[in-house]
Design a protein that fits this description.
4 strands; about 200 residues; four-stranded parallel beta sheet; globular; 7 helices; about 40% helix
Length: about 200
């Protein structure tokens, strides 16, 4: 038993941190739920409760929001586990760790529509920043993050398409298992994809 525990501990110590990232409303919650169904342990605290915008939950870890303030002491806890990190904070992850980043892409019109609805639900003005300006800001941000990721020798990236995941999860789930090099339960991952939550479709 001691030898088994020692081996498992060493495996966890050497395991990469699995990071799910992307723009807001790009499907990161769905992806991390799929990982959990596939057998990967999550790093979450459930502080942010499910609501009308994410009825199945956000799967967030609050301390992630403090990365840019130097709070990265929790990152070793995420080895071998999956954690959501917003795209703007990726560059603050400590470079001494290794990472497998699953980057979520989604049609921009759908991201903007979903974000508008979220702002309305929060009682905020959805017209404060126009769609054209937001699209330009997001495009520049994504280009910047992608360029940065390409320079990180401790990081591997898999780009996943939210729209493809919803329409054909059978072909997409095995890609995730292959990328992570983990024998995931792909059938369980496919089963948790809920097309009913695809409420902001691009026309």
């Amino acid at each position: 038993m001691r030898a088994l525990l020692s081996r498992l501990f060493k495996e966890r110590e050497a395991a990469p941190v699995i990071v799910v990232s992307g723009l807001p409303r790009s499907g990161t919650s769905m992806m991390i739920k799929m990982l959990q169904a596939g057998g990967i342990e999550l790093l979450t605290d459930e502080v942010r409760a499910a609501d009308v915008d994410n009825p199945e939950g956000y799967y967030e870890f609050e301390r992630v929001k403090e990365l840019d303030k130097g709070d990265s002491g929790w990152v070793p806890e995420a080895r071998g586990r999956a954690v959501k990190v917003i795209s703007a904070l990726l560059e603050h992850l400590p470079p001494k760790e290794t990472y497998r980043v699953i980057w979520m892409n989604r049609r921009m019109a759908e991201i903007l529509a979903s974000q508008r609805k979220m702002l309305v639900h929060r009682g905020e003005d959805p017209t404060k920043t126009g769609d054209e300006k937001m699209q330009d800001l997001y495009a520049k941000h994504v280009d910047k993050v992608r360029s940065w990721l390409q320079t990180q020798h401790n990081t591997q990236v898999l780009e996943m398409d939210y729209n493809a995941l919803l329409t054909d999860p059978q072909s997409q789930a095995p890609r995730i298992a292959e990328f992570l090099k983990i024998p995931l339960d792909t059938e369980a991952m496919i089963a948790v994809v809920n097309p009913d939550l695809y409420r902001n479709r691009a026309r």
